[in-house]
Amino acid sequence: MKIPFVKAPIMGNEEKYLLESFRSNYHGGGGKFTKQSQNFIENEFGVGKALMTTSCTDALEMTAFLLNAAVGDEFIVPSYTFSSTANAFASKGMVPVFCDIREDTLNIDETKIEALITNKTKAIVPIHYAGIPAEMDKINEIAEKHNIVVIEDAAQAVNSKYKNKYAGALSSLGTYSFHATKSYSSGEGGALTMNDEKYYERSEFLWEKGTDRSLVVQGLKNKYSWVDYGSSFLPSDLLSALLCAQFENLAQMQQKRKKLHDAYVKTFSKLKAKGLKMLYIPDEIETNYHAFWLLFQNEKQRDVFLKLSLEKAISPYIGYIPLHTSPMGLKLGGGSFNLPITDFVGSSIVRLPFYIMDHEEIEYTCKNLLISAEVALSF
Questions:
Q1: Is 3 a member of any domain?
Q2: What confidence tens digit (pLDDT) does each residue in 134-147 have?
Q3: 190 in helix, strand or coil?
Q4: In this structure, are 182 and 106 located in the same domain?
Q5: What percent helix, strand, coil does the chain show, rounded to 5?
Q6: Is the pTM of this model over 0.85?
Q7: Which of 231, 247, 263 is the last residue of a domain?
Q8: What is the CATH number of the domain that holds 332?
Q9: Rounded CA gap, 379 and 122, in Å?
């Protein structure tokens, strides 16, 4: 049996809606399925306004425009994240200020944020790692105190909740991913979520390549022109058609993912006494079961586990290289940050294969990964 790291889910009407979109003779952005996807996000997740994008990266770049930051302004971000979380802002000339993470959730450590704030800080950009939202009440409290914008990178947390409120609706601005590796997928795709009306009009100008075409569509103008920055952020309606089909099966897909999560918990709880740590879900969180990670005691154990797993045709993944130690991160000043938990996690973590598996796949994966972990922990 071969177990890849991820498989994109196919649940219901994907082919039907894709064919309908194909036959509509309109394959651009902003069509029927794009609007349906946006309406679903707004209504289901309690988001003020949503705009579909070609990726979560694009959504983050839109938030960077909305900040109106100047070159040299700063943003606080965990180093343990994907490059897009920082690159969207650094590419506009902003300076990343890297914050350490919590060892339990691997999210940004909210207790270390305030000490990093200066008069140049314009944003705090937490990610919700593995579908577990960060400690948003405290983060929002700090941001409000210092008049700073909070931007949720909720790429991994679509359909997760923090204190009964959905990720993406927890701050002024947020972003989703519908990439092929995510819980709900259109192959490539994302969304910008907004919960402050002051961003609504300008976001549409950015979305429409810097034009005020949205005012023409609303009948408020008879022609549009270039009024702002922007780019080609709209996804094809073909991709949104795939996503609409996934949204119809949101609860069913989450329950299927929970089966694998529960099997992993049962399997690896046996090794906690030997020092193995695993995904932690705080009491106030309802997760979308996006991912599952193990944290070994050192890099040697992690590497042995990976080697043994691959020998069984099971493909775990090492996770992120911390941004402050990466070539671009170092170029932007990452070497000046002391982030001990981030460094440890970066060298010792493993992300396990996670997708909607059948019973036989779950049994094979858990049985063999347990063996690999038991051997690795002896090093």
A1: no
A2: 999 999 999 999 99
A3: strand
A4: yes
A5: 45, 15, 40
A6: yes
A7: 247
A8: 3.90.1150.10
A9: 45
